[in-house]
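Severity: low
Component: inverse-folding endpoint
Summary: output formatting inconsistent between runs
Steps to reproduce: submit the following structure tokens with default settings.
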């Protein structure tokens, strides 16, 4: 269906009390093997029946997604987790009780009932129960587990509004449910529960500190400590390939705020003298200190506000004709860990660290223990 370039249906739906008839029709499309984009509290997802290999394959085709990049199985309750896994450890049960519905994805051993296409050929599966009325109603109505990555072309900034989905996937999918903007703005935390100690494979809306209150020890996967390099085989979405990237190259500058600002101003001047149009991604209130085009995402003292605005800000640059984007780094602590991770992936290794006597914000396992 997605390869026919048919017109994509766009349905407005109330984010709190979704129209039952719209949900019924969208659920039917999912059961019949179609693709439905839907809002969640994190970003918009692109759903297919996780039990239907042909339907799942359409996700990879529509997005241009690499076949080894795993998908997350979205559920409307905890029962399907027990139905489609071979073992659910006690810590995973406690995490579901505390954080579901919510932006936490748990990786658990599969039992073969869900096709390997969903997991990218891996034996384990990723499960999440989203905290959004539209998403939960849709999954419940479909009556099947719903495999869903973000509803964007592969590698692009994730969609936090239905218009972003339409811009990327019009003619490639069947339906877009427009439930308004996503509140959180970055994807869920992915937590691997298959080892002795839970491991964060992708930071997100549930911070390491909050996880630690349930599990005790928690570690960060080593790939989150690098400068955008990728593992040979991803165990979670967002671990391999360039992700979250706008059309123009992005250069990330990390360090103390004053040194970051000086470096960005210097770089902007260098690029401008070479005839390049420069865009600067900064925090609200800083735009007057920079030359040229600036787009703001959140405030310095609130990394959650940066997360909520990040992807929309990156997409805004695409209509400006900039040749290069210079971005302020974020301290990789608490919710800032997720933002720093997304910016590093978007930069694809184009990262400049400026030193200062206060040190450089970076990923460390000590920081992973903090809220």
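Observed output (run 2 of 3):
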């Amino acid at each position: 269906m997605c390869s026919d370039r048919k017109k994509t249906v766009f349905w407005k739906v109330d984010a709190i009390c979704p129209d039952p008839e719209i949900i019924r029709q969208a659920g039917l499309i999912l059961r019949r093997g179609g693709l439905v984009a839907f809002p969640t509290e994190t970003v918009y997802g692109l759903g297919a029946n996780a039990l239907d290999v042909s339907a799942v394959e359409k996700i990879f085709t529509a997005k241009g997604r690499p076949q080894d990049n795993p998908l997350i199985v979205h559920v409307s309750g905890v029962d399907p987790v027990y139905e489609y896994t071979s073992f659910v450890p006690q810590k995973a049960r406690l995490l579901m009780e505390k954080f579901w519905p919510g932006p936490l994805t748990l990786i658990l051993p599969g039992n073969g009932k869900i096709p390997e296409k969903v997991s990218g050929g891996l034996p384990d599966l990723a499960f999440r129960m989203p905290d959004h009325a539209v998403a939960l109603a849709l999954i419940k109505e479909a009556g099947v587990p719903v495999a869903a990555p973000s509803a964007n072309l592969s590698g692009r900034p994730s969609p936090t509004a239905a218009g972003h989905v339409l811009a990327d996937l019009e003619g490639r999918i069947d339906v877009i449910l427009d439930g308004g903007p996503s509140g959180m703005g970055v994807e869920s935390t992915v937590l691997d529960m298959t080892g002795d100690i839970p491991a964060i494979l992708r930071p997100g809306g549930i911070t390491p500190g909050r996880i630690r209150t349930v599990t005790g020890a928690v570690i960060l996967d080593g790939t989150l400590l690098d400068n955008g390099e990728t593992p040979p085989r991803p165990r979670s979405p967002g671990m391999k390939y360039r992700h979250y990237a706008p059309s123009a190259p992005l250069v990330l500058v990390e360090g103390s705020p004053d040194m970051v600002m000086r470096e960005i101003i210097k770089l902007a001047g260098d690029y401008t003298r070479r005839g390049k149009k420069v865009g600067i991604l900064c925090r609200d209130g800083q735009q007057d200190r920079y030359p040229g085009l600036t787009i703001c995402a959140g405030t310095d003292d609130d990394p959650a506000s940066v997360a909520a605005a990040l992807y929309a800000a990156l997409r805004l640059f695409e209509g400006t004709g900039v040749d290069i984007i210079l971005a302020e780094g974020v301290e990789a602590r608490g919710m800032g860990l997720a933002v720093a991770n997304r910016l590093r992936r978007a930069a694809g290794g184009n990262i400049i660290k400026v030193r200062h006597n206060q040190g450089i914000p970076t990923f460390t396992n000590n920081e992973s223990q903090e809220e």
